[in-house]
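Dear H.,

Thanks for agreeing to be a second pair of eyes. The structure we're designing against is below in token form, covering all 272 positions.
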């Protein structure tokens, strides 16, 4: 049963400071594009009832380079990521991931900050951020703090964010080596990922996977094995110990395990 709109309470922020003041004084869930909120609303699974609309905060939509770090505002849409010369130049696999997020309507409304805050292990953009050692910039009225994306999640849809904090930006340092991204789903786009992998190949490979555990997984033991000269088959066996796929309506644990190991092999072959 759909959630009744009359049960929801919405406030609209006029500035970042206004948003932070509201979050300090009231327990509210920030929303921007609301693409996931509307899905939950339609299926009657929406838990929060008090929301803060931050869609109009254009100051969180900038993309820039600061001291050789790519800084992406939290409200940057997937369409803006696709169109950005800076993102295409620095992190082309983020552009590729953005092209596979839903349809054009979702790309126009969905935001990178929302993708992070939602905490879904199937998020297409988060493995890219994990494999590039991105930093999530959180702000409250007390100041800012920077959390590595690989330390941001504490469990399924659970993060280190405090109730009075807002994601304001994502920082991506220079990425070394070749970048590689693959999404496996019922369709290439407009479908939730069965498996998603983002990786970079250099002297120190970096590999991240989605939809194989309660959170996006950074496969550090697999990375270390490849960096030390292990064969790709040995690395694939190690990867099998780092992920914990499950059976659900979209796929089986066995399928996810097998495809994850095959994707690792494909990544290594494609970037040789």
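And this is the sequence the design step returned. I haven't edited it by hand at all.
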């Amino acid at each position: 049963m759909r959630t009744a709109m009359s049960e929801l309470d919405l406030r609209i922020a006029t500035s970042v400071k206004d948003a932070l003041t509201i979050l300090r004084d009231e327990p509210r869930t920030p929303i921007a594009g609301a693409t996931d909120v509307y899905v939950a609303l339609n299926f009657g699974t929406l838990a929060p009832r008090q929301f803060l609309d931050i869609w109009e905060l254009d100051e969180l939509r900038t993309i820039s380079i600061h001291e050789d770090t790519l800084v992406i505002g939290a409200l940057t849409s997937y369409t803006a990521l696709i169109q950005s010369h800076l993102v295409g130049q620095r992190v082309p696999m983020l552009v590729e991931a953005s092209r596979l997020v839903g349809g054009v309507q979702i790309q126009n409304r969905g935001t990178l900050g929302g993708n992070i805050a939602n905490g879904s292990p199937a998020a297409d953009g988060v493995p890219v951020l994990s494999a590039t050692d991105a930093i999530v910039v959180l702000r409250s009225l007390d100041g800012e703090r920077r959390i590595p994306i690989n330390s941001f999640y504490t469990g399924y849809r659970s993060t280190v964010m405090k109730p009075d904090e807002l994601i304001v930006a994502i920082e991506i340092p220079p990425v070394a080596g070749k970048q590689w991204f693959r999404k496996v789903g019922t369709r290439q786009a407009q479908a939730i990922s069965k498996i998603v992998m983002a990786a970079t190949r250099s002297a120190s490979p970096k590999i991240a996977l989605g939809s194989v555990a309660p959170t996006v997984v950074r496969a550090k033991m697999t990375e270390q094995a490849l960096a030390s000269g292990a064969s790709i088959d040995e690395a694939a066996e190690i990867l099998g110990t780092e992920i914990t796929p499950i059976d659900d309506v979209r796929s089986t644990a066995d399928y996810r395990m097998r495809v994850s190991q095959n994707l690792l092999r494909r990544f290594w072959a494609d970037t040789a």
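Two observations from my side: The first helix runs from residue 16 to 25. The first strand starts at residue 9 and ends at 12.

Warmly,
E.
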